[in-house]
Amino acid sequence: MAGPRPVRIDINYGMSFFDNKHLFELMLNPSAISGVPYGTAQAEVLNAEGLLKAKQVICSWPGYAVTPLIDFPGLARATGIANIHYKDEAQRFGLKSFKPLGGAYAVARLLMRTIATDTRKQEISIHDLLDGKYKEICAGITVTAATDGNHGRSVAWGARMFGCRCIIFINEAVSEQREHAIADLGAVVRRNPGSYDDAVRTARETAIHEGWHVVPDTSDGCIIEAPRNVTQGYALMAAESIEQLPYNTPPTHIFLQAGVGGMAAATCAQFWQHFGVDRPKTILVEPDGSACWFESLKRKEPVVIKGSLDSLMGGLACGEVSRLAWIILKPGANAAMKISDEAAADAMRLLAAAECGDAPLVAGESGVAGLAGFLAIAGDRAARGKVGLDSSSRVVLFGTEGATDPQAYAEIVGRKPEAIAV
Ligand SMILES: Cc1ncc(COP(=O)(O)O)c(C=O)c1O
Question: The domain containing residue 165 runs over which residues?
């Protein structure tokens, strides 16, 4: 049976506080399942035990703090829904994004596994690592990863915390500010021709050649352990948000920005495990030039997007879905949408200007994609109907980064991040 057909909708409904001009494309996922508990295939990727282990490790790091879940009553009123909660990751570990939860956690687990094998111990604790008990062994280990900015920063930060070497591959489009932010953490940064996906392959091949350990945030189906650890770490963000929700009823919708899909998979899985058959509808949001999730869900199998993939939303500019995330999001995502760079830029300006009377907030290009997707749907009568958004809807958004490139932020918003009152 043919699945629902994608539609292209011109936003023209209602809201006057932002320029409602952006085109977007919305598609219901033909493979989505509803009213079904979290499955065993999904539990092999992400489960309560994995989250518990991640929580024990991450909560022991210096500087760990639960990030705020912020209420947007003004925006909820303006968009005609019951409430909106926004998990603000702009201050996570001082690295300005949710990413340290994943990359640095995967570095910790990799070191714990490697040292246990080397020393023939059954288990190495995170406290042993933090206390420098195995610092000679750590100093001889090199970790590597590809990044469009935030994942590399997270891996480099983890490597510095635990005292191992770190080489990060960035692609052509990564800004100098993002490159410097990684190098400032002591990593060697190598610029690789081509896209993010090309850098992923270079990191993997160089690691094999040099005897390094690769810590990807995506899985091609062959490398499993490190990307699974990355996603287990991300699940902590979702778990925190569930604990912070002020009402007892589950949210109705979560809008999740997707690059390779690790963050969206972790969040979808966490809400699914917690709320079971009452889980919220999951809507994936991607840049229109690199919508690998949209196209893969449409064809019901992972497809590769080719071409430049360039987007203002650099963290989401990926052409290939993570095979681990696919196991969760193929049945778990209810819809997928493509948005333009301008829609993301407008969402950044909307948050900074606090036009609806909510607190002003700093959020980066990739971090606002979920909000931009929500705004696009909220402003279109047909799209609202399609995903069931109405006056009783309770939406949770994840602001996954702050001003990770302050110069780009100032160019887009017209003010420096520090000039936005928080
Ligand atoms: C700020 C931000 N949000 C969301 C994402 C998407 O995460 P994933 O690639 O796991 O889908 C990224 C990825 O780099 C990111 O940097």
Answer: 103-216
